[in-house]
Specification:
Blueprint: H1 4-53, H2 56-102, H3 134-138, H4 144-154, H5 161-176, H6 178-191, H7 201-209, H8 218-240, H9 246-260, H10 262-265, H11 268-291, H12 298-303, H13 305-308, H14 315-328, H15 335-344, H16 347-388, E1 396-398, E2 409-414, E3 427-431, E4 437-441, H17 448-464, E5 472-476, E6 479-483, H18 496-511, E7 518-522, H19 531-545, E8 550-556, H20 564-567, E9 571-575, E10 578-581, E11 584-587, E12 592-593, H21 601-607
Parallel strand pairs: 1-5, 4-8, 4-9, 6-7, 7-8
Antiparallel strand pairs: 2-3, 2-5, 9-12, 10-11
Length: 614
């Protein structure tokens, strides 16, 4: 397996090569820019001089040559600038990947405005959302909805085994499809480069939902066509044989119908332009998915099947039709010609009818295309995370508690993905049976809170269908609930202790609900009150949890609480410890069995110069 550092080195070499190419392209772009300026002014000057000194015909010839030369240079300059834009996006992608591997938050793309749900069972405690969160670390989606779909997977409260297994199969294939993922992201970023916000297909979908069916234009189209046919036929016959000027009346009637149906037709040019632009932005992505050769990647191929199922009505074909209608609708820019043409043929009505046909076809297929694209972006985020962290693996997730096998949760080499590799310490941990409560003791800064978050974050990754930071993880399905980052509220008048009580009350309420077993993570239980009441409350709370449809871990500084192991069979003790080396405390952050034999509060106070009585 390629190591993480080897992949970082590979990406950094690619970034350096891209920078070299970009410097070359930028230099060439500057030369093309100057060439366009020189061609324009020199050609214009020669055209004027030729017309003045020789004749107007020479001036026109030189002007035509200037325009052709300017157009050719402008064309190649545009190609060069598009190539430079692609190289820039490609470099940004690679730089972002290195930043994700190094946890360099300053060089990761922002998620935009997304509030952390306050009442969620674990979102805030486990840093699932926010500026320095698991969601931001994983997300490579360009669309707003793909971003939100990934977020919803990470925040799932009732995991679905079938969905997890399906995502794991897709993530496994996509992890190997590096070129496909990079090209998909390239197309998405290139399509959105002129937009301030993320691509939002739902906006186009809502606009399409306001359409009227194409058939509503048929009466106006038929009546106008008949009147205009009468106009042309009677006018031509009148040139041959003497006839009353019927064509004048039919022409006026056709114009009346044309202007009377203006509201029904709508602004064909504006609508066609919006549809062409909005759909073309997405179609460049959809066309890539339509034409890609998926080979043996059967799960990804099945997910993308809506794009290539019917190529006659696929994204590329529909875009061509929309572009043709949009080009034909530009006739409105010439008002006089527009009126003359529409007086003789139903030009705008035909454009409006064909535009509505395009709308109908796109509106019918777009929801399925968007759903597949959003799913693919969210899955690509998980697959990219797996690729950038080759030491991570897909967990073995089971639905029913495997009590006959002795374990409900078994993790080896568990680490926290939001901690840098060089600082990370991994641990092994198991939950053996339902109703079990593990009490974790240890000194300040020994790693208790981080370990609780490690358990929770890896379960979130597992239930999202992604890889976990472990060498082995086997788990059943749980409902996850945490009480780690409790804060008081000045505006609502809550003290810290009351906020913690409310949170633990919510935990008990969740425990009373039917469903999968509840896995809870509680940090420093009842630390907002005095020692005596904290001990009484903690013992009572633990006794209320043991033996029920739950299991979990509770960290505490109260060493008296570890004595519950002697009287309550479902209670188990674990601890973290530290050593004093050269007058400094050293933590190894390794989890051990049994209660903590040491404390360090007084030592920390002494080290910081506070008075401590012996």
């Amino acid at each position: 397996m390629t190591s993480k550092q080897e992949r970082i080195d590979l990406l950094e070499r690619q970034i350096a090569r891209l920078q070299g190419r970009m410097n070359t392209l930028d230099s060439r772009s500057t030369r093309y820019g100057w060439a366009r300026v020189i061609i324009f002014f020199v050609g214009l000057a020669l055209s004027i001089l030729g017309a003045m000194l020789v004749g107007w015909w020479l001036g026109i010839i030189l002007l035509i040559i200037t325009i052709v030369a300017f157009g050719i240079v402008a064309h190649f300059h545009g190609l060069l600038d598009r190539s430079l834009a692609r190289h820039t996006i490609w470099q940004q992608m690679k730089t972002s990947q290195v930043a994700r591997m190094k946890l360099d938050w300053g060089h990761m793309p922002d998620l935009g405005e997304s509030e952390t749900p306050q009442e969620h069972p674990f979102a805030s405690d486990l840093d699932i959302t926010g500026p320095y969160s698991l969601h931001r670390l994983l997300n490579v989606a360009v669309s707003k909805d793909g971003n939100e779909r990934l977020r919803s997977w990470l925040l799932v409260t009732h995991p679905d085994l079938a969905a997890i297994q399906q995502r794991q199969a897709l993530v496994s294939e996509l992890t190997r499809m590096t070129n496909f993922r990079n090209r998909l992201m390239m197309h998405s970023l290139f399509a959105s480069r002129r937009l301030k916000e993320q691509l939002e297909g739902q906006r186009l979908l809502r606009w399409l939902g306001e359409r009227q069916p194409a058939r509503t234009l048929l009466p106006a189209l038929v009546s106008t066509s008949v009147l205009q046919a009468i106009t042309i036929v009677t006018f031509l016959l009148g040139l041959v044989i003497p006839l009353p000027r019927i064509w004048v009346f039919s022409l006026l009637a056709a114009l009346c119908v044309f202007f009377a149906t203006a509201k029904q037709r709508g602004d064909v040019f504006e609508d066609a332009s919006y549809l062409r632009y909005g759909f073309a932005t997405l179609s460049s992505i959809f066309s890539f998915l339509e034409s890609y050769r998926y080979g043996q990647s059967q799960h990804v191929k099945a997910l993308c099947e809506p794009f290539y199922r019917d190529r006659s009505e696929g994204p590329a074909r529909l875009l061509q039709r929309t572009a043709r209608v949009s080009s034909q609708a530009t006739l409105k820019n010439n008002a006089l010609l527009w009126i003359i043409v529409n007086a003789l043929v139903p030009w705008d009505l035909v454009c409006a009818y064909r535009l509505r046909q395009c709308k109908d076809q796109i509106a019918e297929r777009l929801p399925e295309w968007l759903d597949a694209w959003y799913e693919l972006e969210a899955l690509s985020s998980l697959a990219t995370f797996a690729y950038l962290n080759p030491e991570y693996l897909l967990p073995d997730v089971m639905e029913q508690p495997a009590q006959e096998q002795g374990l409900l949760f078994e993790g080896e080499g568990l680490g926290h993905p939001l901690i840098q590799s060089e600082k990370k310490v991994t641990n092994d941990f198991t939950f053996n049976k339902l109703g079990e409560v593990v009490i974790i003791t240890g000194s300040n800064m020994a790693g208790k809170s981080t370990f609780l978050r490690t358990l929770g974050v890896n379960l979130c990754l597992a239930y999202a269908g992604g890889p976990v930071n472990a060498t082995r993880l086997r788990t059943t399905l749980f409902r996850l609930f945490s009480c780690i980052r409790v804060s008081d509220s000045v505006t609502d008048g809550y003290s810290y202790f009351y906020a913690e009580v409310r949170r633990l009350r919510a935990l008990l309420d969740e425990l009373a609900q039917p469903g999968y077993p509840l896995l809870f993570l509680i940090d420093e239980i009842f630390k907002g009150t005095n020692n005596r009441e904290r001990l009484i409350g903690s013992r009572s709370f633990v006794r209320a949890l043991v033996g029920h449809n739950c299991l979990g871990a509770i960290s505490t500084h109260d060493l008296e609480l570890v004595k519950l192991e002697e009287t309550v069979p479902e209670v188990r003790n674990c601890h973290f410890r530290e050593q004093v080396v050269g007058g400094q405390m050293v933590f190894d952050y390794k989890l051990r069995s049994g209660p903590c034999p040491t404390t360090n509060a007084l030592k920390i106070m002494q080290m910081e110069g506070l008075p401590v009585e012996e």
